[in-house]
Design goal:
Blueprint: H1 10-22, H2 30-43, E1 52-53, H3 56-67, E2 72-74, H4 77-82, H5 103-115, E3 120-123, H6 127-133, E4 142-145, H7 153-163, E5 167-170, H8 177-189
Parallel strand pairs: 2-3, 3-4, 4-5
Antiparallel strand pairs: 1-5
């Protein structure tokens, strides 16, 4: 199911028209633009255009993997509910907490045992889920790391960028299940195949994995930060 084949409701069409009237996204590369716009649409928050961090080459590889049938793992059912027309893996119900281990972190361990390497991971709630993923040799196709909250969220996303893994993240404390699901949906809906000439490695420009090294307004080739609700310890 792509944007070309799904039926788009007139309200959604009008919402994107108003978004584009208020924010020029035409300079973003195609997949980056799709993620930025859909995340902003999900939150009605234009600030995500300067908060999200991603790499077009990473998105191209993830797009190909996703449409080739790679598994999609989520940290909570709220993220799963927001991902349309694709089965997901969520092991939170099977997880248990223990000394130094939250349920969310244990759920990540269980999910990795189930799906193995090469999956797309969508984390929108629990920073500890993202932290646990970074300790595993998961070789993900993409990590959408957008947990929300005042404790650990920004730090876990900074660690994700430092890891060098292919990722979508944001610099601030905001995020959540809806925006994480929206980022994945953007790749699901995008109709075009990634260009065959798309480089597999990161471009020579300052990598998105080190946002602090970049100016507040990044190069036009990638968003300053191109980016569903946190109850981390409730999980």
């Amino acid at each position: 199911m792509t944007e070309a084949t799904r039926v788009v409701h007139p309200i959604e069409q009008e919402s994107f028209r108003r978004l584009r009237a208020r924010l020029d996204t035409s300079h973003f590369p195609p997949l980056t633009r799709a993620v930025v716009e859909r995340v902003i649409h999900s939150a009605a928050d234009l600030e995500y255009a300067d908060d999200l961090v991603m790499d077009e080459a990473d998105l191209a590889g993830a797009h190909a993997a996703l449409h080739a049938g790679a598994p999609v793992v989520v940290d909570v059912e709220m993220v799963a509910a927001g991902i349309t027309r694709r089965e997901t893996v969520c092991r939170l119900r099977d997880a248990v907490s223990g000394p130094g281990l939250t349920r969310s972190a244990h759920a990540v361990r269980l999910a990795y045992e189930q799906v193995g390497p090469g999956a797309l991971w969508v984390i929108g709630c629990a920073p500890t889920a993202l932290e646990e993923l970074l300790t595993l040799d998961a070789s993900p196709a993409l990590v959408i790391g957008l947990p929300v909250g005042f404790v650990g969220a920004a730090e876990s996303k900074a660690a994700l960028r430092e890891s060098g893994l292919p990722a979508v993240s944001n610099v601030s404390e905001k995020g959540g299940s809806a925006v994480a699901a929206a980022a994945l949906n953007a790749l699901l809906y995008h109709p075009a195949s990634p260009p065959a000439s798309q480089p597999a490695s990161r471009p020579a420009s300052p990598p998105a994995s080190h946002p602090a090294s970049r100016p507040a307004s990044p190069p036009a080739s990638r968003p300053a930060s191109p980016s569903a609700s946190h109850s981390e310890e409730k999980q």
